[in-house]
## 1
Amino acid sequence: MTDDTVTLEIAAPDDWHVHLRDDEMLSAVTPYTANVFRHAVVMPNITPPVTSTQAAAAYRARVLSAAGPDARHDFTPMMVLYLNEQIVVDDLLAGAADGVVFGAKYYPAGATTNSAAGGNDLLAFRPVLEAMAGAGIPLLVHAESTDPSLDIFDREADFIEKQLLPVVEQIPELRVTVEHISTRAGLDIVKDHPQVGGSITPHHLTCDRSDLLANGMRPHLYCKPVINSREERMAIAEAATSGNPSFFFGTDSAPHPLSKKEAEKVAAGIFNAPYALEVVAELFFELGCLDRLEGFVSHHGADHYGVERSPAKIRLTRRADTEIDPPEAMFTADGTEVRIFGADAARRWAWEAVS
Ligand SMILES: [Zn+2]
């Protein structure tokens, strides 16, 4: 048997977009993130949404207590406020100055899980956005139109053209992240504006809508924005592996109970935190660009946000055989099952902290 094991060391990765939920789900999923990622930007769409510094500090404490005994020593949840009418600018600025609040997240109302409290017009938040720009607080955006007359696969482009571009052009000092890019429209606004970065998920990198729909509908691949065409996926993979520092890793890991994923009306979200790094490593391996993995998962996001790159390292190993059988489901303490994305890649890859 030939030994074609591959090993590489990279700076500890960051997850710039993750949903950790609350209560028993929080306790069950947070260790997967805390074990491998240094920073985790924790989304605020819990119930009720996180709209104040006080709520962010309390949620951060719950995340840290859920991180578990095997969490990285430098695991740092970075808290985000949910941008809506309840946000008080002075509270946001004070929270950021105190290091409690990392950024603010905009959800179009109704676009995805727990987004009912979101907005209908991003520019209506202009005073908040200008204050954020002045204080160096980034805006994170779920860029998806909720216009019911629009085809679901065209909604990212529509939101970017009508709502995000005006903000980017009228408030150029504001640092912006287009989250979970799913189309070339998302890639293009990032490429065209140095202050705009883009997070990319493991599933938008490796799946297209034929995977979702062609061979029996697969509800576990349903997320928002919906996984798009093969052409869009190829463009996203090209951007992520290009070395362009404006693109970085955000898992958008979003756990739902099995009962919500296998239902008449399926909840949007994919739980990928356990194998997210393995999925991306396998893609970079297949495309022959493992030398660019560290930039994408460990450096570019830190640079975009003006955060120090991780001095700590992890070692990734790709096995020649695929004999191990990683679990494809996780259970919360009360027995709720959650399916895990990416087991195929986890058969190949393992990682360990080296510093
Ligand atoms: Zn998300």
## 2
Amino acid sequence: MKRICRCAIVVAGLLALQNLPGPGRAAAGGAAATFSIVAAQTPANGELNFNGADKGRLMITVPEGAAVDLTLTNKGSLPHSLEIIPYTKQLPAMALATPAFPGAVTKDPQVGINKGQTAVVRFTAAKPGKYLLICGFPGHALLGMYGLFEVSPSAATKPSLVIKQ
Ligand SMILES: [Cu+2]
């Protein structure tokens, strides 16, 4: 019985720790939104897809203030990258110089990462609204390598990643 009680205290303590602000977490207590993004997961759209989805069919939603953590893995034969940019119907020819949020871009997005490589992007979703998640390698977003990224004004929104068929 004593043993069980001690375990319960440890578990409660760990749960409390998870809610504390720390590296990669919003100081304001924003939810952690962690997603795995795979460039060229399938051959769809000439491999220009994220998690198999092209042309805005991948949709990520996070609450305002979320500490977003995106891990990009490249399974394709071409270089790929990831950048969050403000929503636009005029897809850019390549990565923008400045992402929508500080840190919301992989290193050297116009060069990208190669097959088998991984890059992590961490940022705070500080402003509600609609954004695009694009591949910044020249030509890829224009050819359909982009998804939608939405920041909900409601802190109660659960982070989600949906692929529209
Ligand atoms: Cu790409």
